[in-house]
Amino acid sequence: MAEFLPIIMFKQRSDDNQRVKGGGGDRIPGWYLQGDDLLLRSEELVTELLNGIAVARKNPKLPYLFEVQLDGDDTSKTKRSAVAGMLGDSTANERPSIIGMRGTDSLIVQAKDKTAVRRMVAGVKDTERNVAGISCVKKVSAFSAEVDLSESKDYKVKLVDYRNYDDNIACQRAFEESLAAEFITFFRCEYSSDLIIYDVEASPKQAQAMLDGIMGESIFSIKPMPRYEMTLDGLSLPNDIPGIKTPESEEYPALGILDSGIERIDHLTPWLIEEQWSTYPDNEQDRAHGTFVAGVALYGDEFEHEAWIDGLPAMLFDAAVFPNPKVVGGVKESEIISNIQEALEYAHDKALAWNLSISGVGPVKPNEFSDFAVALDALQDKYGILICKTAGNSRAFLRGMDKEPLAKGADSVRCLTVGSVAHETGTYDQASVGEASPFSCKGPGPEFIIKPEVSHYGGNAGINPNTGESTVSNVHSFGIDGKGAESAGTSFSTPRISALAANLDFALDDESDALLVKTLIMHSATFTDGKLIAPDDKVKELGFGVPASLPQILSDNPYEATLVMRGTLAKGEKINIMDFPMPPSLIRDGEYTGQIILTLAYNPILDASQGGEYCQSDIKVMFGSFEEKVFKDTNWPTILKEIGRTDTLNLLLDTPYSRKRLKEAEGDFALRERMLVEFAGKYAPVKKYAVDLADLKDSFKKKVGKDRLWYLQLEPLFRYNIEQMALRTGEVLEQEFCVITTIRDPRKQAPVYNEVRQLLNYHNFEHNPIKLRNQVRARIGG
């Protein structure tokens, strides 16, 4: 039996922690307006500001609100700072002038009164001092709410967040009083602390009256309240059901199921935690969907005769957050969120991993995160859990159209979003095995973040050309009658991932946390079809691919080594490891060879008021080689560390690689794992790279010569908005991260695992094989 080689946890040394300080030059940027162009823009903006206060006001007690459209989509910190300075934003001011964003190119600006507006006008007139701010702004207009008064009985009303507690409370009270005066029923929804949302029962006429009324200027948006529906198109099958599993010990993984409820059938009852949660009585529940999801989570491998997860069965907590739609009709978004919040408040300590196979109505927007996603993020932050969330299903393939974007909620930054791949191919199915299922919604998420991050097997589909009807190759589970059933959808690929997450959490025991589990899953994922498809198409549909099984994630072979580093980075700090353990056995013909897979995931600071800039922080990662360490002159203000690097090569850029070699799709790595760097955008909360040193241009081969040293560097970045907030509150900006690096010899000859451990010892890194429960180690380690 082969030796069990667990992946390795390691920490940076104290000398690897460094400080950073920004620098800058005095050259005038090329985007500055000059001469008549500058004067004309200044005059236009002054006129637009004055027009904003010339109209009659419904409520003089409310601040003036403006929408400031930036010139272009570049909202870099330097430009944002210039606009803020021109409009009077001050770190000492408890009521900042810039209070949010709409999309990625419009700032929401407030002015307490006409005097404050005139100060803004004076700033815009100062073409000598504020040339940068004037150059950045394209247009200023009075703020107006986003309005959709389609026929509805319930409206979702979002109020402006004035970024001041007292102002917000006063506004909410006045808004509620205005509704009560009109005998309008309303309910304050707790999506997250950053969102002020009401569920209002009103007719379109009453909704318009709200906009026209005394508190209309405080409304950010008013739209029909989204309603969710859940269906399961399946068949009862009496045969081919796995044998009943029964618990044999007291300890098993735990998994929460946020769904429509789980029927107490023989195959599932032994695995249901005795406690359960629901706000609905039995006669308002239809447990078909939740039962199917639970069956996949518990018996998925057995039904499909595969070892896709290859873990232990999980004890399930049943949280019925969705009622029978046939009884009560479609469910309001606010009700679903409230149910999930109450269920997790009651049972968050029952499991780290939670399955949510419910999707919001409508697609995500390209430059704005959905309120459903923001609510899910807030819950995961509050309770330290990981929600595995469906990408959503699309029926566009039936109309011969391209796949629809992700469903709302799938854009949650903290969730692990799951797409579907085909497990088999029927006569008329459109996808080959391992390709994205025709019905699986397509990414990316807002601002090009990678969503879904991973996929799993959820079925296939097509159209019978003879009848024009849809055909489906289903996956298998249980019906509420206890018999076998079959269906397809991202609802049923997701519980495979949540079962894997539950197993990882259980295996890691005290070392487990949501970010580590999430990163391990993404790091292990590969494309399983082995076909050459444009990488951007694959990532949009499948994320990073299908994860490996539990034993494969937690162990290495002698020819590879996986290093895991968890930590926290604060503003002004960076990690610069200049003795990264690159094994010398990978040197061939005087040059380093091998494959490197690096995944960085972090928990960015989130701010729902910032529109497309919801993710307020980032981590820049660099990995590669350098010539030698050098002592730097610390008298220079921008150099805060004595030791630096010369002739540095960052392998996580596309520049060093031969485009010709990258296009030559030969070998397993090129087809299944290679991840190009364009999928690692700034402020993307997950970045993954998979590179082969054999793909380097000949001109860069000398930069991986045998005498070179190796490094890994992490440096945090923070947006202007969150930096200004931190200055006001005194908060220290920091974010958790997890970076996993695998070094591999594709020839399976070099003793990579042993050499990496020897180098960690030699360079005095604190490290140890990842600690696993004895129960799991015995199962997967032999």
Describe the structure.
A seven-stranded parallel sheet has the order 16-17-15-19-20-21-22, sandwiched between helices. The longest helix is centred in the middle third of the chain and has 19 residues, at 490-508. With 782 residues, the chain is an alpha+beta fold. The protein starts with a strand and ends with a helix. Helix 7 (288-304) crosses helix 11 (490-508) and helix 9 runs parallel beside helix 10 (371-383). It is built from 19 helices and 40 strands. The protein has four domains: 35-142, no CATH class; 146-225, Peptidase S8 propeptide/proteinase inhibitor I9 (Alpha-Beta Plaits, 2-Layer Sandwich), CATH 3.30.70; 236-542, Rossmann fold (3-Layer(aba) Sandwich); 564-781, no CATH class. The chain is globular.
Largest sheet: 7 strands, parallel
Helical fraction: 25-40%
Q: Structural class per helix/strand content?
A: alpha+beta
Q: How many separate helices?
A: 19
Sheet with most strands: strand arrangement: 16-17-15-19-20-21-22
Q: Give the CATH superfamily of the largest domain.
A: Peptidase S8/S53 domain
Instruction: Give the distance, in angstroms, between the N- and C-terminal Cα atoms.
Output: 7 Å
CATH topology of the largest domain: Rossmann fold
Report the portion of residues in β strands: 25-35%
Question: How many domains make up the coordinates?
Answer: 4
Report the average pLDDT across residues: 89
* CATH architecture term of the largest domain: 3-Layer(aba) Sandwich
Q: Roughly how many Å is the radius of gyration? A: 28 Å
Poorly predicted spans = none
- What is the CATH first-level class name of the largest domain? Alpha Beta
